[in-house]
TrEMBL record:
Names of required cofactors: heme b; FAD
Written domain comment of the UniProt record: Consists of two distinct domains; an N-terminal heme-containing oxygen-binding domain and a C-terminal reductase domain with binding sites for FAD and NAD(P)H.
Name of the molecule in the record: Flavohemoprotein
Entry EC number(s): 1.14.12.17
Domain FAD-binding FR-type positions: 152-263
CDD domains linked to this entry: flavohem_like_fad_nad_binding, Yhb1-globin-like
Designated gene of the protein: hmp
Site (Involved in heme-bound ligand stabilization and O-O bond activation): Y29
Lineage: Bacteria, Bacillati, Bacillota, Bacilli, Bacillales
Binding site for NADP(+): G276, V277, G278, L279, T280, P281
UniProt source species: Paenibacillus yonginensis
Pfam families hit by this protein: FAD_binding_6, Globin, NAD_binding_1
Amino acid sequence: MLSQQTIEIIKSTVPVLEVHGQTITSVFYKRMFEAHPELLHIFNQANQRQGKQSTALAGAVYAAAANIDQLENILPVVKQIAQKHRALQIKPEHYPIVGENLLAAIKEVLGEAATPEIMEAWRQAYGVIADVFISIEAEMYKEAEEAKGGWSGYRAFVVERKVKESEVITSFYLKPQDGGEITSYLPGQYITLRVQPEGSAYTHIRHYSLSAAPGGKVYRISVRREEAGEGKPAGVVSNYLHDQVLEGSVVDVSAPAGVFTLDQQRNTPVVLISGGVGLTPMVSMLETLLKEQPHRKVTYIHAAENGSYHAMKLYIEELEAEHEQMSSYTCYKNPLEGDSCHQTGYIDETWLRQIADPGADFYFCGPVPFMRTVYAALNQMGVPEDRIHYEFFGPAAQLQEA
């Protein structure tokens, strides 16, 4: 337990974290990787270069400091981060390394303002926060290993099929190399692939949403090829999967994880909204609703650049034709000649009001600008926060405009 004095010192640093948080976390990652280059096998270097990881960590540190006396307030965030830690195989022995370098970064950035009292308070606070994560993650590791068909660490999977879904998205059907069962998952969850492309000094780890309903004998992921552009490097793993991983290739996979899942205890109508490759968790949820909750009305809305970028278009149309409970709509930003869609340009509040039940539960996923647009439209429609559910690919960002 932290003393009241320690709690007060930590809370007094919250304004400083608002100003210097991202600088501190950027210095932290630089120090840690220089001292422990083996950790480069775990962390997404593209997110590091673009600053996404340091931004996300700064937000987490700020939230922990602001709630240091009531950490239960941020348990949902802790559990979301812990799910990713378990998928990445972050272990208790990593936490002292993180703590040492985080405290050193705070000292380096704040200079003389980081008094011995402040540093000691943060040392104690980090110990408490680390213990919370370690405890929660221990339960997650146990659950993943003991589940029917479950496993610990990484397991070898063979690419059984590789199917091109659009100009930029390809699906991979993965079966365990050992021929054993695979653990089930909740619609919306992801698996984590570990690969080492030829010529790469480090392994690369990426999360990919499962794009089919649970209950099958294989896992399906649908991966967008991430091209370079606008200051963003080409996706190392996505291009490797598209170009070098063939049917029969083997990849390492950790067990399904994630907190963005379909709530099957509710009977409300459901509206699923996806942009681009954000369709992956949405299709898993859609298939599950059609199979397991045939009484529940579901509307599926997908946005894409145009028809050539629209993955699984015919499949979704077939599902709609076969199920009375389902309706689907498409929005193309720049439709090609011959394309057929319901909306041109962007999804907006006016169109959503016409096609979506405002009393539904809304789930959405896609690029951050797309998600900001959808989130704003749902707020304008008066949809309560407890019926708005969304997923980020990569480190969490902020949907509310500053």
